[in-house]
Specification:
With about 130 residues, the protein is mainly α. The chain has one domain. The chain is built from 4 helices and no strands. Helix 1 (about 1-30) packs antiparallel against helix 2 (about 35-60) and helix 3 (about 70-95) runs antiparallel to helix 4 (about 100-125). The longest helix has 30 residues, at about 1-30. It is elongated.
């Protein structure tokens, strides 16, 4: 039980670090007028994902080198789903409730991070075999 709680805590810290990179890049791209916030989320999401993958692979889940060839495609699928959920979710919340996109993004991220990203990373991307 303690190991699962430690893993969950590490995953949340990793998500926070990757999320801060993601969030900062999104604001930068949007406020500089380079992209609409919904597209900035897509671009920044992939940048934050690289940070998150690196931390999770080496620190959170302590994945083996042999498993990298399976993890990268799985992680890419998870990131694509996550980025789409965040972009669409943020747009819907922003437009429907008239919120600032920065606030909507934080709300949507909280739900996607725990309900989608962590679950897929723990049980699919970085899954640890019981006999290993």
């Amino acid at each position: 039980m303690k190991k699962h709680l430690t893993t969950a805590a590490k995953a949340q810290l990793s998500a926070f670090i990757g999320g801060m990179v993601d969030y900062g890049v999104m604001i930068l791209l949007t406020e500089l007028g380079l992209f609409h916030y919904s597209f900035s989320i897509v671009v920044s999401g992939f940048i934050g994902a690289i940070v998150n993958f690196t931390i999770n692979r080496h620190w959170t889940f302590e994945a083996s080198a042999e498993s990298k060839s399976k993890q990268i495609p799985r992680f890419a699928v998870m990131v694509l789903g996550s980025v789409l959920l965040k972009s669409i979710g943020t747009t819907v919340v922003t437009e429907f409730y008239g919120m600032d996109y920065k606030i909507s993004r934080l709300l949507v991220d909280a739900v996607v991070s725990v309900g989608f990203n962590f679950m897929l990373q723990r049980f699919w991307v970085f899954r640890i075999k019981k006999n290993a």
